[in-house]
Amino acid sequence: MGSMEEEHTCPLCRDVFGRAQPFPCGHSFCPACAQEAWSSSSGCGKRRFVCPQCLEEKALVECDCCPEDEVQAAVKTCLRCEISLCEQHLQPHLQRPAYSTHLLVEPLMDVSRRRCPTHQEEFRHYCMDDRVYVCPDCILEGRHAQHQVKGVRKVEEEYKVKLQSLFEKADEKVKQGEIMVQEHQNACRTIIEDSSVSDVSQVLQMGSALQTQVGRLVSAVINITEQERQQAMERVQEDYSRVREDLNQTEGIHRFLGSLLDERDPFLLIWAYQTEDSQMMADLNSPLFTPPQPSMDKKRILENVENKYREFIAETLRCLIELKRDLLSSPLTLDKNSAHPLLNISEDLRSVMRVKKRLSVPEHPDRFDHWSQVVSCQIFSSGTHYWELEVEGFWDIAVTYHSIGRKAKEGTAFGCNKISWSLTQQHDKKLAAWHNRKKTHLSVKMSGNHLAIALDYDSGSITFSEVGSSSTLLPLHSFSTSFTQPICLGFGLYKPELNSRVTILKKI
Question: What are the UniProt keywords, alphabetically (predicted)?
């Protein structure tokens, strides 16, 4: 076991690997290191694999035909002649027909591994079944009689055809990857730049709104206190007037009684006393008006302040909800290439209207050809998102996998398959939720035409709501699922006579 492990241990990474065909030099490497070494050789401008262990490229292969005092570097090795040749001595092999069957390879220090160890003949064939090189004598002995044996050059040509196909496929994939990387970088740059400006602007707007609300709250509290103070002053003034009135009346009686006491005419005294007696006695016996202690109604002030504070909290929550929606709002535009010919897309790609006559549009593999539907350009595979729409007529708003079929009738309508979830408003304003051909009638109706969609990809939740007054959300229907593919938004407009239209509202 120890010798087997040593034999199958990669000399570069020291990992143990399975059985592998050794390279022509005799060394074996794990597939990962071999691929890396080959890629490194190609990256340095070398067109052949150089064993990283024996480092053949560092050894100068000399021409076997040059005189000892004028030895030149070899450019090819002939496996038939088992000699290495410089440019000059290579010419006969290239020009004379007698050498046309000789196999020329890159210069080699040791050609013994290109020769059959049993028959000492050049390996000119390859057994496809045993995956070993064989010489003509090996074939004659019959050990590979029933096997598929091909010439080395033939195998080389066949493999090069396959490799060329794989190379072209890899090249195409590399180009696609580079385009995707560039698009992703551009999208990231756009999102970061736009969101940084937008988010700061939205936060500043919320701060300004909150400052306004704080100012209103402070002003309201000051006004409430001032009004209560004014009302208290008016009550004190009224009480003062009553006290002053009683005092004036008492002073008048006091003066009258003093004048009677000073009167010398008894007849006049008696007449005056008897005339004013009852009223005077009643006035003297009634107590003076005693005003209450001046005070302000603190309870009323607190109640009014509390009401204003509640209004402030409600407005603050509204501002925070608006900010949350603004921050969660994701860019959304319509994909013209997916739009059915009966749908007219606006120039800004934010509005779609159902028309009666088919539009002249080019053929496209992404275009819906039966249902008058369109999907968004943006595709989402993570995160939380929020959109607001203005909807009219007979409409169908869906969250769907981007892979939804676009051709034919069956399985391509939103909500009529397992990969889409939709909310529909019919001509009678009735709402229905659709998924996997199952229709759920909703008891609620929209009072307006302002619709909101909240999506949490990671938790698999979809919520349709109506945006009411003061931007409050009135839930209409929710779906709960588990997403396994990237999703996008879909819009279906099926009745042209109802002026059916959907507009994506841009959050500012």
Answer: Metal-binding, Zinc, Zinc-finger
